[in-house]
Recover the amino acids of this structure.
């Protein structure tokens, strides 16, 4: 059974970018509900003893309730684990950004535009493909980027309205722009 992962930070450190109220709804209500529902759905069946990643893979296009909840748990945990105050992109990773997108500014513009252009609810990812090239990928609903192909997720921004509506109303662009300022770039090398 899965547990709601505690955040590795205090809500208040992101005030001005993500409010305490948004974290309370997003983490403590939305994400927690996915964890609890997933636990109910896998109890006593073929999914019960699998890892979260294996549940997502095995349920994709076969068991929508399990997949939707497992995918949401996976995506939310990846998102929350990827936030950090005052993280700085390494020169090595900036070089990769420049090689793949031309500049950080061009990467940010493409990333933001992809997130803004995601129809309905979803996620915008920075991934690495099997050849080591960086890609920006948009997914809908509960889909992690690696379901779409041989992608390794590096970072993700949640573009479901529950992630930003309290703070930004319908301004998804400003939400994504501000989230880029609190990405844990240290994790990306």
């Amino acid at each position: 059974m899965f547990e709601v992962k505690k955040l590795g930070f205090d809500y208040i450190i992101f005030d001005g970018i993500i409010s305490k109220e948004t974290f309370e709804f997003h983490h403590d209500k939305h994400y927690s509900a996915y964890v609890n529902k997933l636990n109910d759905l896998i109890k006593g069946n073929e999914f019960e003893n699998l890892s979260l990643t294996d549940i997502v893979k095995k349920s994709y296009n076969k068991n929508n309730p399990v997949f939707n909840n497992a995918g949401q748990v996976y995506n939310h945990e990846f998102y929350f684990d990827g936030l950090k105050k005052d993280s700085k992109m390494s020169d090595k990773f900036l070089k990769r950004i420049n090689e793949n997108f031309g500049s950080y500014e061009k990467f940010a513009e493409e990333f933001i535009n992809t997130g803004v252009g995601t129809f309905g609810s979803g996620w915008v990812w920075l991934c690495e493909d099997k050849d080591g090239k960086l890609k920006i990928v948009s997914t809908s609903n509960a889909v992690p980027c690696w379901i779409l192909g041989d992608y390794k997720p590096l970072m993700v921004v949640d573009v479901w309205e529950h992630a930003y509506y309290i703070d930004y109303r319908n301004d998804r662009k400003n939400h994504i722009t501000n989230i880029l300022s609190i990405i844990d770039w240290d994790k990306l090398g």
